[in-house]
Design a protein that fits this description.
Elements (H helix, E strand, L loop, with lengths): L1 H24 L9 H13 L4 E4 L5 E5 L8 E6 L19 E3 L2 E3 L3 H21 L7 E6 L8 H13 L6 E4 L7 E2 L1 E2 L1 E10 L14 H16 L4 E2 L3 E2 L1 E10 L9 E10 L5 H18 L5 E5 L1 E5 L5 E5 L1 E2 L2 E2 L5 H12 L6 E2 L7 H4 L7 E3 L14 E3 H19 L1
Parallel strand pairs: 3-6, 3-7, 7-21, 8-20
Antiparallel strand pairs: 1-2, 2-6, 4-5, 5-22, 9-19, 10-14, 10-15, 10-18, 11-12, 13-14, 16-17
């Protein structure tokens, strides 16, 4: 009976949800520029009958369906920002057009994560319209600045906003792309920067200087060797180390560079920490300095200063923890049962990329499960899209999960 009520209501709400998803795509929301989207989400949740709706100090938008008390609470989580569309000539459909064609909704962030965001917000509306009672609270959170990968929005939400509002949650359901499967973890991430220092001279007399790029070459060889020795996890896969950028200064013809900088992307396993990853690089630099009196280099974890659309400023380390929830975890079992009840048979998987669950689960220890209609292959590409059929299933699936977890 409950299954059929959820499925029937998802059919009835689908067109309205799709219109809302199209409006989300037609509302650009780059990192640090999510204001219009936050206001759009807030207005929609008020219209749909959420008990509380607000935008917090950093610009996150939150909607709450209050439970009767005494049960676990669930937080749906999406991020509101997206990457730049790039060269628009490569797009078949306008990146901010929200075009429906060929069984898909097209546009920037359709697959990362506005298709899933719409399905989460409307899942709450579905439960309210069906009249399903729940003991725990159901919370929707749309957070800012996930794409820069400093977890700024989710950290503020969990450390300040929710405690101030006396809200808590026992499970976070992330809308990052899973193709209707249940994703249970991913590797961590840290951005490392190495700088070698030399001395400038005229390019016609290189012996008068110390070439910082030349000093970087043995570093890169050692980094490549280190990458081949990193451990592997039976579920999360290989820890990796990749060179992603290199630059030098002054960067002019006929001048020997006195500074060379490289950026490294290090993917971490649960037993590794950002500090340990940095220490591995520092050991390489110390060994090279011991054999070369002219070698001078430093390594650090990158830090950046971020400003939210509300004007809040924070210094953020570019690091994210690894995490993994086992399939036998009780909340995973209950989530899978909820989906089976509405005719879905999800597989288990993990993300290659990092998500805000690095903070929620990797730092706070609150379980996260990924579930959404979006497919990773379309994210950050000119083919950005989300399947209409999967969106309808995700609407019913999200509602079924919320009903089972909080009921």
């Amino acid at each position: 009976m409950m299954k059929q009520r959820i499925l029937d209501t998802s059919d009835r709400l689908f067109d309205e949800m799709l219109d809302f998803a199209g409006e989300l795509i037609r509302t650009p929301s780059p990192s640090g520029g999510e204001k219009a989207l936050a206001e759009l989400c807030a207005a929609q949740m008020r219209q749909l009958g959420y008990d509380e709706v607000f935008i917090d100090a950093i610009g996150n938008v939150v909607g709450v369906l209050r439970g009767s008390g005494g049960g676990p609470s669930l937080m749906f989580n999406s991020h509101m920002d997206h990457v730049d569309p790039g060269n628009e000539a490569l797009w078949q459909y306008p990146p901010f057009g929200g075009v429906v064609a060929g069984g898909y909704l097209h546009g920037r962030a359709a697959s990362d994560v506005k298709g899933g965001l719409a399905a989460q917000i409307y899942a709450g509306a579905l439960l309210r319209q069906v009249g399903i009672l729940h003991k725990g609270d159901i919370i929707f959170s749309g957070v800012v600045q996930e794409e820069p990968a400093e977890m700024l929005g989710i950290r503020h939400l969990c450390e300040q906003t929710l405690p101030e509002r006396q809200l808590r949650f026992d499970l976070m359901l992330s809308s990052e792309a899973t193709g209707l499967n249940l994703f249970l973890g991913h590797r961590g991430r840290v951005e490392l920067e190495i700088v070698t220092e030399g001395r400038t001279s005229h390019g016609s007399a290189p012996w008068r200087g110390i070439n910082a790029v030349g000093k970087m070459l043995p570093v890169l060889m050692a980094v490549e060797q280190l990458a081949g020795t990193l451990p592997t996890h039976p579920v999360l896969g290989q820890a990796t180390l990749a060179l992603t950028n290199i630059s030098c200064s002054p960067g002019r013809l006929s001048i020997i560079p006195d500074v060379c900088s490289v950026a490294l992307d290090r993917r971490l396993l649960p037993e590794e920490t950002p500090a340990q990853a940095l220490a591995q690089i520092e050991a390489i630099l110390a060994e090279l300095a011991a054999s070369d009196a002219d070698f001078k280099a430093t390594a650090r974890i990158r830090n950046v200063r971020e400003t939210s659309w509300t004007g809040l400023v924070a210094d953020c380390a570019k690091q994210m923890e690894a995490w993994l929830i086992r399939p036998e975890h009780p909340l995973v079992i209950e989530t899978a049962k909820a989906l089976h009840a509405v005719g879905q048979t999800p597989d288990f998987g993990i993300w290659d990329f990092a998500t805000d669950a690095s903070y929620v689960t990797g730092v706070l220890g609150i379980p996260t499960i990924g579930y959404s209609p979006m497919e990773e292959q379309y994210a950050h590409t000119p083919s950005d899209r989300v399947s209409l059929e999967m969106m309808k299933k995700a609407l019913a699936g999200n509602a079924a999960i919320a009903e089972r977890i909080t009921g």
